[in-house]
Amino acid sequence: MKILLLGGSGFVGTRLTEILLAEHQVTIGDIAESQKYPQLWKKCDVCSDEDLRSVMPGHDCIVNLAAAHRDDVRPLSLYTTTNVEGAEHVCKIASELNIHHIVFTSSVAVYGFPKWEYDEEAPKHPFNEYGRTKLLAEAVYEKWQQLSPDNKLHVVRPTVIFGERNRGNVYNLFKQLSSGRFLMVGNGKNKKSMAYVGNIVAFLKWNIEENQAACSVYNYIDKPDYDMHDLVAGFEKALGKKFPPVSLPYWIGLCGGYCFDILAFITRRNFPISAIRVKKFCAQTVFSSAKMQNSGFVPPYSMEEALKNTIEFEFIKK
Fold this sequence. Notes:
The chain has helices at 11-20, 49-55, 77-96, 129-145, 169-179, 197-209, 228-239, 250-267, 275-282, 290-293, 303-316, and strands at residues 2-6, 25-30, 41-43, 61-64, 101-105, 152-158, 160-162, 184-185, 191-196, 215-220, 222-227, 247-248. It is of the alpha/beta class. The radius of gyration is 20 Å and the shape is globular.
């Protein structure tokens, strides 16, 4: 099968390329050159019809990983440009070229802050532009799928992804712990659904190769869910260290986040602390993976193995 990974130069795309290459022909279409697979890379902006027409012909399946996703993307219109208009461009060119299979990585951000263990049918109340535009992009792809009985669409909504070489929230938490600068905000009892990169790429591969549904939507979460104290304890155990249990009340942390927001506005600089990041850190974000668990897909790694692999690679073996 000939597979095009849009946004494939990033963390998830690189790991997905790694497991697909043994059986498929892979092309990486991205604005940034792939550091690991430069020979497979072609420059491509998902918002450019010209770029898409140059890289999409001849492929059997398009996997769209491209997204504006950071909390501090400015101007805010870039979320719409990349996530929504990018989807419109991909669907338009796929129809032109008679490409009938698309896998789209959305996000659990479409739900907002969950009030219970949200499944795929839960209410959608995104709290930021990222979640809002991912939800709009899903609608674009669903409209494309309905244009032809031959079209297959698989939407995957991962929770926060972690793993070796990732520099996201889980890595930042462990890095702060390792440096001794970690400060718990809130009571630490809030649970976080997470996804290991080795499992999420295996699930994307399953959707490419084995999912025969005309249209499907899956949350992707690795169970069990850990609370913040569990994550800290796991890191301490892996490193054989004990960190002082210092914590800050939520309201103080949130006030500090707002202060950094004001400072960022005045100085036009981005800071690692913001009100939305404090809210996300302290929120209980737990989602259901029951549908995925009943799909027939079996994750290759347990959460214990995933955390052990990540901590050893980043902080022990380095």
